[in-house]
Amino acid sequence: MSMLTRWGRELDPDAVLTEYPRPQLVRDSYLNLNGRWDYAITEDDAEPAAYDGQIVVPFSPEAELSGVGRQLMPGQTLWYRRTLTLPAGFGTGGRVLLHFGAVDQTCRVLLNGVEVGAHTGGYLPFSCDVTAALRDGANVLTVAVRDDTDTVPHARGKQKLERGGIWYTPQSGIWQTVWAERVPGVHVERLTLTPHLAESCVEVTVHAAEGEADVEILAAGSVVARATVPAGRPVRVPIPDVRPWSPEDPFLYDVTVELGADRVRGYVGMRSFGVGTDAGGVPRLMLNGRPYFHAGVLDQGYWSDGMYTPPSDEAMIHDIVTMKRLGFTMLRKHIKIEPLRWYYHCDRLGMLVWQDMVNAGGRYHPLLVTAPAFVPFHLPDRWFGRPHRDRFMAELRETVEHLRNVVSIAVWVPFNEGWGQFDAARVARELAALDPTRTVDHASGWHDQGAGDLRSLHVYFRRFRAPRRRRDRRALVLSEYGGYGLRVDGHTFNDRNFGYRRYDTPERLGAAFARLHAEQIVPAIRRGLSATVYTQLSDVEDELNGLLTYDREVLKLPEDLVRAVNRRLTLGQAP
Fold it and tell me: CB atoms < 10 A from the CB of 79, how many?
């Protein structure tokens, strides 16, 4: 059935997600290439003589907002084509870069028949230097995509060809913004901004081929620090009278960088994350050197009309603002990497993020990934396979670099419930070495290898009791729980009803939600519980256990009730 969101109903196919897609490396040069493209689906990898129709990019052909409504199958090729004409005022000289926010799973990019780039990995951005292939006037841009979903061991998230239950309809192709920019020959390729709150400074690294960059840091429009930074060398820039970032005060410093003819803008937030002990010696998650309870909600990032792609910038903001209004301080971004603007809104609005890596590997054995939900047990690492670990580790490193500057990311989660898990303790160590500024939940749910910073539990089918602390100095977190379901007629994907407990009225759901927290969750806080992740932000397909319906139209619980529960959580931590 059609499930357009309010933003989907207002969508202009000729002006789709037009906002600048990279908020921490902004240039004035920007050409948005979203909108109507030609498309075709073929049974082989030969470009078709004629195309099948039009698709609205960046929505996948499986998504209603694409205007296509077709499923790309393993072995098929999805073709995109459009005309690319650089507008007057786009400038001359330098290099022209073509950017793709994400294309699922593998693709080739051609300009005027010349291959200018290729990429594998459906969740990470890539760019192509198209300067040599460009002609004056109109150019033909073509993209060829293959997506074999879960029949190959590529990163796939919760997509499954045989969808159902906790596995969702697969989507394919271009699903984040496509755009172009012109840059000088020597330009800022990346910008790394690492806050060191305790030392009142920002470590700035300007990644470029050569040269020196002039860096300014501004607070509320006034310059508070300047430095000259050699390309490729980290330089610590002191910040006077530092104003820390937090969910209660999400203050961001603006950053400008000039390298020769290139000028970029970004931002940084001064904050620190870690695990320490409270006054009673209990391990806690720390924010800016103090214990801070993470009252979180699981966020799948699926949309009823756009699937992986939010229908608008306002739609992304709605989810974050709604959860913040309900008293949540954290979103666990579950097995998905969002467009960079989503993270920007978390940064500026003040919402902590736990970022999952996208799972991969072969088919998952039920003993490893399902049975522990009913009968808790942990298997040692030798029970796990080694599913294309080199590719997974490469994408893990790319993910860290891609999201390193995000102010709000507090926790990295490499593995969830054994999905594609391998060498979890080693992976946690490598992840901590890659980014020592954040904490690591090495095995969310079960199959704990005793590593990382968190002892991470999922509890759905039994009462939750905080385990005895013993000698474990990791912080205790309930990284998934709840999942209480309620069907709201007129706002459901189909007639299925998946949830860990089902209720037939909002009143009964509300009473159960309040009772769960009063009897099980709040008492555990003084015994060491440092974070909770309630399942989940919205319904997704068969799953009817969201706080919001899939189309985001109905909040199933009274706002006052949820706020009151979250207030007890955030105030319940021992001082």
Answer: 22
User: 475, 285 in Cβ contact below 8 A?
Assistant: yes
Helix residue ranges, H only, 441-554? 506-516, 522-525
Q: Is the dihedral of CA 434, 436, 438, 439 positive or negative?
A: positive
For 69-121, what is each residue's pLDDT tens digit? 999 999 999 999 999 999 988 988 999 999 999 999 999 999 999 999 999 99
372's tokens: 């522990």
Q: What are the pLDDT digits (tens) for 210-246?
A: 999 999 999 999 999 999 999 999 999 999 999 999 9
Structure tokens at 117: 């780039």
- Distance, in Å, from the CA atom of 264 to the CA atom of 280, rounded to the nearest integer, reads 47
pLDDT of 350 strictly over 60: yes
β-partners of residue 503 are 486
Q: Are 300 and 332 in contact (CB under 8 A)?
A: no
- Tokens, residue 497: 């009803």
Q: Is the dihedral of CA 318, 319, 320, 324 positive or negative?
A: positive
In sequence order, the 6+-apart residues with CB closer than 8 A to the CB of 550 are 3, 302, 304, 491, 492, 493, 538, 539, 540, 541
Rounded to the nearest 5°, which phi and psi values hold at 8?
Answer: -65, -40
Nearest CA to 295 out of 8, 13, 3, 571 is that of 571
Task: Read off the tokens for 511.
Answer: 């009473």
| The one-letter amino acid at 232 | G
151, two tokens: 């029949």
- What is the side-by-side strand order in the sheet with 262-268? 222-230, 212-219, 253-259, 262-268
- Tell me how far apart the alpha carbons of residues 370 and 484 are, in angstroms, rounded to a whole number: 19
Please, how many CA atoms are within 13 Å of residue 230, restricted to the half-sphere of its CB?
Answer: 1
* Tokens coding 319: 């989810």
Q: Is the omega angle on the peptide bond into residue 176 within 30 degrees of 0, that is, cis?
A: no
Long-range contacts of 428-431 (CB under 8 A, 24+ apart): 428/452, 430/393, 430/396, 431/396, 431/400
CA gap 70, 81 in Å, rounded: 17
Of 457, 499, 485, 466, nearest to 556 (Cα)? 485
State in Å, rounded, how far the first CA of the chain is from the last one.
50
Say what the pTM is: 0.97
Angle at 269 between CA 209 and CA 407, to 5 degrees: 80
